[in-house]
Amino acid sequence: MTLSTRVRLVDPHREALRLNAAGSQLRRNGAYAEAVELHPRALEILRRADARHAVALTQSNLALALSQLGDDRSATALFEEAAETPRELGEEEHEGRIMANLGLVYRRQGRSRQSDDVVQVALTKLRPTSRDYEAVEAKLTRAG
Fold first, then answer.
1. Alpha-carbon torsion, ordered 47, 52, 57, 58, to 10 deg
2. Where are the domains of the chain?
3. Under a CB-based contact definition with an 8 Å cutoff, are residues 65 and 28 in contact?
4. In whole numbers, what is the pLDDT of the chain averaged over residues?
5. What number is the average pLDDT over the span 132-138?
6. Pairwise pLDDT comparison (74 vs 1), residue with the higher score
7. Is pLDDT larger for residue 136 or for residue 83?
8. What pTM does this model have?
9. Is 82 exposed, middle or buried (0-12, 13-18, 19+ CB in 10 A)?
10. Closest CA to 55 of 17, 87, 109, 2
11. Largest alpha-carbon pair distance within the chain?
12. Which fold has domain 11-143?
């Protein structure tokens, strides 16, 4: 098998998920700028494939990395856009996680009222017994 044959055999969706996962790991390791380089590459592939759920997940991951770099304006726009897809698809848990992150960015921006409103909506979408729900409550306790 030649190199060109192997390259053609790479599944674009699988490659996008790999890029997204690698970006998320970099972000968790504090390499935010490197994560910001990978997530847009994944987004491009996923948008071409019309993989809406995966696009929203990747937008959210990119927003988290941008927020860590201090680009809360771009992060806010991405979170807001990302939340629309799970809302349309009826994926409340996914929407709740994105909205919780959006609320935390609003809080850092000094938009406390908007943050409180968004986080309260997020909590209604998350299962009270979930780790995500507990994490949001813990962040609110620390922030408050």
1. 0
2. 11-143
3. no
4. 90
5. 85
6. 74
7. 83
8. 0.84
9. buried
10. 17
11. 60
12. 1.25.40
